[in-house]
Inverse folding.
């Protein structure tokens, strides 16, 4: 039973779009991540994905339009809804859901491995 | 699919230690609440209770000691662990769990009904 300083945890992440589990409760994981650029478009057919921005600005691109999130904003992507998170500058956020979804199928871009940076636009 | 500004939601709460559901995902509810003084000592035998402080300072009193939380700190009270949240000044926080637990059995003090204030110490 230890508290978690979410900002401090997120500050030590090496890799973009890679989730670190910091706690678990009631079948869900609490995960910190940082983003820059965007993931690929993807869908989680079996679970909702909840975003809570800690620092920076994160845009959840949906096929129906963008949802712009700042610090303290929470957004639930319903299961089955295609989405593509975008951070024009580095953003740090909390994710809540039953699984770690930062996989290729979960939208993690190839460039983000080994602490990579997004390709120049 | 609407985003939730957690600070704005918490700012409009009337009653202390009364949870407002702002979102749901994967069998869990996201709830905002505000506290001052303390709840009563209580236990949730069937679920973990996750606290994430949005503003102010919240102390989770446990029989084994206090856990002091500030903004951005997350803490999971395991199921079956007796606890008594305490806010020496007003605190606002997010709760995550499967049920609304701001009931008498869940520690809500009698004075908090109808936007009441805690009795003088």
């Amino acid at each position: 039973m230890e508290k978690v300083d979410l900002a401090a945890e997120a500050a030590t992440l090496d890799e973009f779009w890679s989730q670190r589990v910091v706690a678990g409760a009631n079948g869900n994981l609490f995960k910190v991540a940082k983003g820059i650029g965007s993931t690929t478009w993807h869908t989680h057919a079996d679970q909702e994905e909840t975003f809570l921005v800690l620092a920076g600005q994160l845009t959840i691109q949906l096929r129906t339009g963008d949802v712009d999130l700042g610090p303290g904003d929470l957004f639930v992507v319903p299961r089955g809804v295609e989405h593509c998170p975008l951070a024009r500058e580095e953003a740090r956020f909390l994710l809540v859901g039953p699984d770690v979804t930062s996989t290729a199928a979960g939208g993690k871009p190839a460039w983000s491995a080994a602490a990579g940076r997004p390709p120049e636009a």
User: Anything to note?
Assistant: The radius of gyration of chain A is 13 Å. The helical segments of chain A are 6-11. The beta strands of chain A are 4-5, 20-25, 28-38, 49-55, 58-62, 65-69, 73-77, 83-97.
